[in-house]
What we know:
The protein is an alpha+beta fold. It has helices spanning 2-108, 230-236; strands spanning 118-120, 137-139, 146-148, 153-160, 166-171, 177-186, 193-194, 199-203, 214-219, 227-228. A hairpin with a 5-residue loop joins strand 5 and strand 6 (177-186). This is M23ase beta-sheet core domain-containing protein.
Amino acid sequence: MALTRTRTALACLAAFTAGALTTPGTAFAASKADDTALMRAVDVNDSLAARLAAQADAQRRAAGQAKKQAEQARKKTEAEARAKREREAKAAQKRASRSAAEARKRLTTWVRPVSAAISTPYHATSSLWSSGYHTGTDFAASSGTPVGSVGRGTVVQGGYDGSYGNDVIIRMPDGMYTLYGHLSSINVSVGQSVIPGQRIGLSGATGNVTGPHLHFEVRTTQSYGSDVDPVAYLRSHGVSV
């Protein structure tokens, strides 16, 4: 009986001793496992935060780059548009200058009165003319051929004029007068300004004639008897006759 009690006591002591020795170690191990899990969770959170921060930074950089590119594209578009406007303005100015130069040239260029050959020269002699000689130059133009002013000027006479038939007299910029006689019709009126080559009428056979032609005369005054050589006059103004 006493032996049984002793064995029981020893068993209890061993159990107590074993419990006292093993319980703190188990608790420490559990605590360490919890710390490890917490650290892993913190590491995961830190890694996720870092990735999110990196993504946000990349997005900011991308947005900044996109804004910069958009600004560059806007400036490029504006520069191209400005350059285009400048080119168009220069081209328009050049066209205007060319047109103005051409207009000045048209106003200052002298031309033949009609597209026809000379048939009777200046100062040819004949009883056909009261003065005994030809006071102008005749061009062999058939009836209805357009007749134009040889230069810029102002119409001072237009109508029927005796032996000249239907004629037009124009005062030229140099103070001389040009006469276009024997016209079948007149297309200008007194006081009208004309430019070189402008049609003033059509050739014909009115007045003292033997057939249709244009009588072209140059005078120092508007009156008869102040004639000069028409061909020499035209050539002095650069006209090939």
